[in-house]
Amino acid sequence: MKSQGRAAFWLGLAWIMAGTLCVSGSRAMQSDADIPDADERRPEFPAWIVTRLESLNPDNAESYFLLGEEVIDAATSKTEETLARRLFGLAFELDRRDGSPTWVAPSSCIALASIARLESDARWLRALANRIDPRYAPPAWRESVSGGAVSSVAFTTAEAVGETRAGNGIQARNLLGKPGVRELLLRYGKLLGFSAATGAVWQIDQWAGGWPCRECGNERVVFRPDTDPPSYRECYTCRGNPGPVLSPAQLIAQLRFESRLLHGISRSWGAQLAIDMGAPLREPVADELAAVLGIDADKPYWRSGWNATPDARVTSSPTLDSTNTSDQNDSQELPDD
Ligand SMILES: [Zn+2]
Predict the structure, then answer these.
(1) 313 and 335 share one domain
(2) What is the distance between the alpha carbons of residues 81 and 88, in angstroms, rounded to a whole number?
(3) Strand, helix or coil at 128?
(4) Ligand 1: centre distance to CA 197 (Å)
(5) How far apart are the CA of 234 and the centre of ligand 1, in A?
(6) Which domain holds residue 291?
(7) How far is the CA of 315 from the centre of ligand 1 (A)?
(8) Within this chain, do residues 208 and 61 fall inside the same structural domain, yes or no?
(9) pTM for the complete prediction?
């Protein structure tokens, strides 16, 4: 990380102390200590949940979503929270299986976002919902700019700024060339800390055009000729850290701008700064959801554990042990990006 970046981080951290405390507070509320889990060794789902689980049919994705909502509403243990997460994940996968998702898939993303433990995961899930159905975009953006898929334009614009900041000039120029991005920058570019939006667009273009590093191609190191064994030195041009050199004020303005673009996706730019230190946004890709949740959509039948076929019958009530045997990844957290 650049020294400016570090300085900005600490400066930002000082500025947003209150915000950070809020983030810690909300996380503490979600921590395991607050969830009564004394019975973790042999928990049993209440009978009504078991009955409903056994009645689920993969032809009806909605039923998975609705049960997930009821389970999370009544959840008293981490096991039930994990079950709800899986139900939402299955609803998502089953709903989009035929290539034409209904409201269930994006709603499942929103539900998963509401119980995500990391703000970056919640943001990714909301962006995914929004990508599947632009109606899940924050209403303000649909009103403020004409066109149906404005929210994805807002997301693309935020991505473009992030890639520019990271020195990924090729990706940034590609994103800047997408429909609506330049218009959005012109309209709201002043938030990037310039007196005129045209200046902001010009500066972003300059930064995007100036990278990747001409000396090392963002490899950060350069081969030393005539050395045996081959050796490398740090790139003199980017000093091993590609991307424009930003002042703390510029970095903060960029993060604030991205947060405003993603209003509703990111709760606050301070939270993002505290969590990912200004890393570029992660692309919302529907095919990744099952993998990051550790869900196998080919096992949609609950028979004292998740099964691929409805044949296996249940003779005893489910326990955490049986849940774990059928799916060891169930409790896995979404990975950090
Ligand atoms: Zn370089």
Answers:
(1) yes
(2) 11
(3) helix
(4) 30
(5) 8
(6) 12-27+42-138+266-337
(7) 64
(8) no
(9) 0.45
